[in-house]
Design goal:
It is built from 3 helices and 16 strands. The chain is an alpha+beta fold.
């Protein structure tokens, strides 16, 4: 287990703020009071540290397999119309990431990055259906060697204030390669071709890089 590079600056800022807070409490309230603030500060810091953890995992790499792009819980499995890029009906699978999940995102298939776009937007709760189209988000389209395209969408939540996506700097993605990071609670949507085999169910817990969401035709 290591710390993800996206957490270094945040961890430094949190550390400085907590040190300043404890110094102020010490000078104003003395040792008796600062003991409590130190304990609370340590807990807060380790919670933030835990959020930016980067676990060592072996990625599943199988032709046709769609691996989970994130840790979390399946909150949507339904047929929808994707109207940003694919312009067709798709099977949508959504993964909700709580603040306790690992927040790294991974490419679910191997393929060429055909499209990338970042959208500014709101920060409503990520589990709400409207968050897919109204929240801040990124859209990434991947095309495999057979010409099949899937769309991956990172969505900010009520607490998530920054989405990091590396797809704009990548031409070809490997299955299980890091795609990005969403800070503090969020959601990832997959838009898959109709006829894809879906192996996950509502409320199922999935593990990024290791759970197979389904299979492309």
């Amino acid at each position: 287990m290591t710390i993800h590079k996206e957490g270094f600056s945040t961890l430094f800022v949190v550390l400085v703020v907590l040190l300043a807070l404890n110094a102020g409490v010490y000078f104003l309230g003395g040792v008796g009071v600062v003991n409590y603030t130190v304990l609370v500060s340590v807990i807060i810091y380790f919670l933030v540290l835990n959020f930016f953890r980067n676990p060592r995992r072996e990625a599943i790499t199988q032709d046709g397999a769609i691996i989970a792009p994130a840790d979390g819980k399946i909150v949507v499995v339904e047929e929808v119309e994707e109207d940003e890029y694919l312009k067709t009906k798709c099977m949508k699978v959504s993964i909700f990431m709580s603040v306790f999940n690992v927040h790294i995102n991974w490419f679910p298939i191997k393929g060429v990055v055909k499209f990338f776009k970042h959208h500014n937007g709101d920060f409503m709760a990520a589990y709400l259906p409207k968050s897919s189209t109204e929240n801040e988000r990124t859209t990434v389209v991947l095309e495999n060697s057979k010409g099949t395209q899937i769309l991956v969408r990172q969505i900010a939540g009520a607490m998530a204030r920054r989405i990091v996506c590396y797809a704009d700097k990548i031409e070809k993605a490997s299955q299980g390669q890091q795609m990005g990071f969403i800070k503090f609670g969020s959601r990832v949507d997959l838009y898959l071709p109709l006829g894809s085999q879906i192996d996950v169910k509502l409320d199922q817990k999935v593990t990024g890089r290791q759970t197979i969401i389904g299979w492309l035709k």
